[in-house]
Amino acid sequence: APNPFMAMLTADVVGHSTPEKGGSTVWHLSVATRGDGYNSYTIKRRYRQFDALHNALKANFKDLPELPPKGSSGNTGSVKEEKFLEKRKTGLGAYLRSLIDQPVLRENEDVRSFLELSAAEQLMVKLHEKDIYCYNLVLEKDQALEQAQMKASELQGSLSRAQARAAELQAAADEAAAKAKAEAAASAQARAAAAVEVQKAKAAAAVEV
Prior knowledge:
Keywords: Coiled coil
Helix content: 55-70%
Protein name: PX domain-containing protein
Shape: rod-shaped
GO molecular function: phosphatidylinositol binding
Distance between the termini: 136 Å
Number of strands: 3
Largest sheet: 3 strands, antiparallel
Number of helices: 5
Coiled coil: 145-179
Domain PX: 1-122
């Protein structure tokens, strides 16, 4: 059965190295998870290995992507060689991407072996496990945050009610103080008036005598 993990893979030629004079160019291939390039590994292949893979695939498949033709790169270090290698890098990269983009080809054992896709499957399993772990971690943090927000909302509600009650009590205290002050003032006036009346009465009594 098709492996769903394989649909998430990408492959490309990212560079090359040339051994000592007379040796063939070694191409550096990067196999990565789509959209997550740090989960990747690099393998090295020579052109003849590409050619062998292509011939093996031709025995079982039609309409294969085009493999860059064989050819000479010219003198080492020459401008001609640099142009040749750049063109071949582009061609081999396009060839790899075409193989990976076709489910029937990327599931082929020859392609899997060429790209060491067993390692890729292990990579994808680890990535999947990491994604689940991260999801659960974020979910736990979100739940904790939601609970903290609810608690803060409850505390804010309690604080608002306490502040409202304090305001009511302060208003009542202010009203009581004002009333007491008014009553005290009225009482003082009454006492003063009574004292005046007493003085008047005393004065009247003295006159009569």
